[in-house]
């Protein structure tokens, strides 16, 4: 069969912007109104707003990022006239063997169910306030966390700013969130699910995966009957409805649960041919593990459905690093993990809390919000028995740009709200005055206090236990912030060895919180395509980048800081730590600042960083003095600020694989027209093996 190497296809920018303005929930159940008309109203309602500007900027950077990556990846067939015959024939044979191997791994023996509560927050509010019955209403403040099915008929959905939602549905009623109530009902529902599978995996407060194979065998029930019984039990005990998908693996079950929403179930036939037919016309956006930017990337080479994966497998194979051939071939075949088990405490990498609110510029009110966040974080840490060594402050401007500042300690952080608040305040004050719409705190580099108690109880027996737990084939995760920046991690693997996402993708629980996504792009292999982009590990439920307009992004009107990164942090089911950012304070015995992009950076420059509250001269960089370049070891004359900003730029370019990181004028070699950057490339000191080794 003839295969072609695809050529890049241009997607109209206006179409991309309209789709991005529509948000991540365009495929939600209950959207009866024409989607094109909905998108048009959203675009018209958004024009001129900061929300619209933020989305436009994201689209521009996303487009440039994709174009640059694809332009680097295409093979010029005119240079190699026979490559289309020789190479593609070889690729065809190789990929055919790979498909055969994958097909041999197909397991149809397990009955996997994905359960998803219908409009969970809205349904709980309806229980508590029956007067909302029949009315279109949404839950949230500023940004909707969910919408009732009556509201969805107008195009209103989760993650939508309320001012846009009211343009679509003028009679919309907005109800405030009541998270304590949602948690209470969620526990009730999960307890019912655990009657059918004690080892179920909760994927959030309103959804989860179950393996009901054993239960069906023991009670001699058909899968459909068992799931119907479970749904009826939830309805009887909680008065809530749940939708379900039944399939041989988790990916298919999740897709199936959306087929008959709301209050329905769908069972996929347990047959290889039926599964492949089911997947053939499936939109790639429906695949768990493919986010908005990855969708756009795949569409740029002509892949819109899973069936297109096969015809474009030559391109995917040639650009395996960017696309993740194995994952996409698995999706084409409908093969994925069927291992269901609860998340382990040791997998957790962070714990945090945040608040979204109407834009606030008053310092006292901002600090009051920070104190609320610290109180919630104290409660969560003490309830879960966690502590950590790094505290990250996240704040979002009224322009929807998000930033993080972090501080690391050599000791374990106190879980008391007063201490958490003081550290957060110390990180925030140099940035004020600002107008904020979100603030949050997150602790990373966690320590499990329960594990310490168990270790003490285990005594000497622990020395004779198997180390098997450390080599478990469960999903591979980075162990610390430094490793997180390495960029050499292999594909994300499930316990049974399947890839569960495109490269660089991280699944998150709060996919409906558009407010936590604005100012971000998908975290994907494209993050390396533009300078000034750094990865983030949290929020969206889809893949994301953190957006950074400049190499040294700094909030408008903020006080200067030594080195800063734009990033976006948020909650996640198993969240990863945000990389530590240098803090504008001198190092001391009680804490250290670090930049995980560049090992040893804190030790090199930490003593020279001006303290918070230092004089204007110190904050502006101080006097020019001799500094040692950690890259080449040479001494250059530069002030503190410029030196630290230079290193931040270098580290950001190092992560993205960029060659031409721009150093300031003062970092030039005296008596020559060559910049220090070019001199580094010319001399290639130890550790610099080639042009892309930064």
TrEMBL record:
Signal peptide: none annotated. It comes from Grifola frondosa. GO terms for molecular function: damaged DNA binding; DNA-directed DNA polymerase activity; metal ion binding. GO terms for biological process: DNA repair; DNA replication; error-free translesion synthesis; error-prone translesion synthesis. The keyword Hydrolase does not apply. It catalyses: DNA(n) + a 2'-deoxyribonucleoside 5'-triphosphate = DNA(n+1) + diphosphate. Keywords: DNA damage, DNA repair, DNA replication, DNA-directed DNA polymerase, Magnesium, Metal-binding, Nucleotidyltransferase, Transferase. This is DNA polymerase kappa. GO terms for cellular component: nucleus. The keyword RNA-binding does not apply. Pfam families: IMS, IMS_C, IMS_HHH. NCBIfam families: PRK02406.1. Belongs to the DNA polymerase type-Y family. Coiled coil: none annotated. It comes from the Eukaryota. Residues 464-507, 523-592 are annotated as: Disordered. InterPro entries: DNA/RNA_pol_sf (IPR043502), DNA_pol_Y-fam_lit_finger_sf (IPR036775), DNA_pol_Y-fam_little_finger (IPR017961), DNA_polymerase-Y (IPR050116), DNApol_IV (IPR022880), PolY_HhH_motif (IPR024728), Rev_trsase/Diguanyl_cyclase (IPR043128), UmuC (IPR001126). Its EC number is 2.7.7.7. PROSITE patterns: UMUC. Residues 564-592 have a biased composition (Polar residues). Residues 112-291 form the UmuC domain.
């Amino acid at each position: 069969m003839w295969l072609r190497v695809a050529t890049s296809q241009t997607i109209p920018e206006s179409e991309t912007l309209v789709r991005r303005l529509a948000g991540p929930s365009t495929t939600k159940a209950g959207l009866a109104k024409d989607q094109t008309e909905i998108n048009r109203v959203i675009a018209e309602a958004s024009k001129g707003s900061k929300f619209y500007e933020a989305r436009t900027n994201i689209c521009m950077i996303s487009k440039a990022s994709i174009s640059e990556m694809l332009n680097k990846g295409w093979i010029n067939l005119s240079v190699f006239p026979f490559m289309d015959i020789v190479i593609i024939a070889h690729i065809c044979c190789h990929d055919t063997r790979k498909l055969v191997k994958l097909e041999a791994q197909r397991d149809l023996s397990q009955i996997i169910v994905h359960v998803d509560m219908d409009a969970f927050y809205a349904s709980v509010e309806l229980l508590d306030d029956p007067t909302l019955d029949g009315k279109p209403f949404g839950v949230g403040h500023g940004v909707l966390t969910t919408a009732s099915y009556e509201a969805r008929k107008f195009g209103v959905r989760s993650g939508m700013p309320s001012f846009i939602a009211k343009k679509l549905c003028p009679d919309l009623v907005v109800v405030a969130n009541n998270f304590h109530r949602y948690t209470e009902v969620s526990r009730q529902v999960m307890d019912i699910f655990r009657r059918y599978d004690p080892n179920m995996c909760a994927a959030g407060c309103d959804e989860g995966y179950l393996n009901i194979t054993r239960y069906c065998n023991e009670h001699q029930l058909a899968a459909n009957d068992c799931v119907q019984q479970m749904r009826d039990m939830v309805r009887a005990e909680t008065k809530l409805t749940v939708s379900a998908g039944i399939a041989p693996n988790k990916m298919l079950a999740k897709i199936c649960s959306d087929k008959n929403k709301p209050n329905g179930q769908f069972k996929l036939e347990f047959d290889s041919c039926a599964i492949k037919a089911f997947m053939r016309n499936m939109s790639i956006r429906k695949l768990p593990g493919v986010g908005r930017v990855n969708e756009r990337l795949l569409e740029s080479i002509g892949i819109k459905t899973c069936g297109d994966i096969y015809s474009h497998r030559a391109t995917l194979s040639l650009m395996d690093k960017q696309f993740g051939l194995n994952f996409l071939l698995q999706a084409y075949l409908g093969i994925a993990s069927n291992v269901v088990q609860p998340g382990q405490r040791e997998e957790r990498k962070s714990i945090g809390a945040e608040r979204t609110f109407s834009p606030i510029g008053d310092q006292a009110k901002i600090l009051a919000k920070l104190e609320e966040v610290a109180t919630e974080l104290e409660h969560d840490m003490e309830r879960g028995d966690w502590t950590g060594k790094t505290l990250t402050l996240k704040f979002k401007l009224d322009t929807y740009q998000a930033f993080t500042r972090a501080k690391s300690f050599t000791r374990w952080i106190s879980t008391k709200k007063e201490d958490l608040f003081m550290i957060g305040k110390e990180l925030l004050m140099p940035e004020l005055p600002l107008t904020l719409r979100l603030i949050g705190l997150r602790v990373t580099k966690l320590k499990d206090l329960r594990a310490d108690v168990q270790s003490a109880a285990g005594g000497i027996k622990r020395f004779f236990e198997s180390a098997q737990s450390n080599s478990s084939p469960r999903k591979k995760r980075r162990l610390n912030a430094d490793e997180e920046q390495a960029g050499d991690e292999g594909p994300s693997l499930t316990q049974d060895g399947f890839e569960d996402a495109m490269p660089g993708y991280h699944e998150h629980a709060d996919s409906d919180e558009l407010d936590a996504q604005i100012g971000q792009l998908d975290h994907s292999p494209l993050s390396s395509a533009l300078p000034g982009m750094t990865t983030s590990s949290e929020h969206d439920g889809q893949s994301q980048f953190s957006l950074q307009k400049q190499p040294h992004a700094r909030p408008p009107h903020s006080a200067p800081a030594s080195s800063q990164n734009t990033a976006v942090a948020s909650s996640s089911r198993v969240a990863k730590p945000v990389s530590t950012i240098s803090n504008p304070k001198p190092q001391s015995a009680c804490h250290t600042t670090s930049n995980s992009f560049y090992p040893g950076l804190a030790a090199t420059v930490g003593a020279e960083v001006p303290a918070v509250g230092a004089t204007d001269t110190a904050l502006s960089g101080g006097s020019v003095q001799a500094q040692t370049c950690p890259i080449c070891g040479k001494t250059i004359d530069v002030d503190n600020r410029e030196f630290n900003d230079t290193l931040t730029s270098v580290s950001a370019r190092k992560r993205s694989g960029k060659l031409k990181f721009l150093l300031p004028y003062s970092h030039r070699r005296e008596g020559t027209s060559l910049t220090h950057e070019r001199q580094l490339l010319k001399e290639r000191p130890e550790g610099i093996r080639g042009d892309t080794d930064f």
